[in-house]
Amino acid sequence: MSDRMRYPSDVTDEQWALIGPFLQAWKAKRVAVSVSGQPGDYDLREIVNAIFYQNRTGCQWAYLPHDLPPKSATYYYFALWRDDGTDQVIHDLLRCQAREKVGRAEDPSAVVLDTQSIRAANHVPAATTGKDAGKKVPGRKRGLAVDALGLIIAVVVTAASVTDNAIGIRLLDKVVEHTPTVSRAFVDAGFKQDLALHGAVLGVDVEIVKRSDTRPGFVPIRKRWIVEQVNGTLMLHRRLAREYESRPESSVSRTLWASTANIVRRLTGTTTPSWRHR
Length: 278
Description:
The chain has about 280 residues and is α/β, with parallel strands linked by helices. The chain is built from eight helices and six strands, in the order ααααββββαβαβαα. A hairpin with a 6-residue loop joins β2 and β3. α1 crosses α8. About 0% of the residues have low confidence.
């Protein structure tokens, strides 16, 4: 790592020991098949630091600090890892480690599904956005499938006008494709019977957990509260608090990197100060 002053979002040596081997193996494989055979000029740790910095602060590409890799290099690797699935591979391998650390199997048997509507910035293409008819939010909708520990299993990003049912079906398809051990899914009342029927076809029992209004104030709902907690944690990454990405695939990658940052902190027992930190 360079001698520059450290940002709070930078990976520590202990955290880089978890992420670094995957990226070094990726780099070695890429050099082996490249025409030039050149390894590249930028330290991959600094590229990850730049992605984490932008995720955490929400800054524009042009406003990346001068002591981090420039936009051209950072975006090059961000888009490359997004398109070749490296971000997903790193995230999923770290997720398995986090589950094993607490004595769980690598893959879960149950997931919780939910969606969140995110207001889009004015430069986001209208063709990939819409308006959530229920929440009246113009932008995109992020669908998550998480396990009992609050670790993300699948992410789907669509226009906000897409129904929860349609997103739920896509989420279940991704869950079954990548995590075939899942046999049960918990959802809220916003998901309809079509999702349960689709789950039955896939071999997943979909249970609708309804809210009870008998108690005043905030009441965590059994089985469902964990995905709400995950959404709240993701909002600490300001790049996810509003929809800035031109492509939904970039929003998915942003979510995976934010989750990866959370997982490495969980694995190493470290924290990143929030804006409330004094």
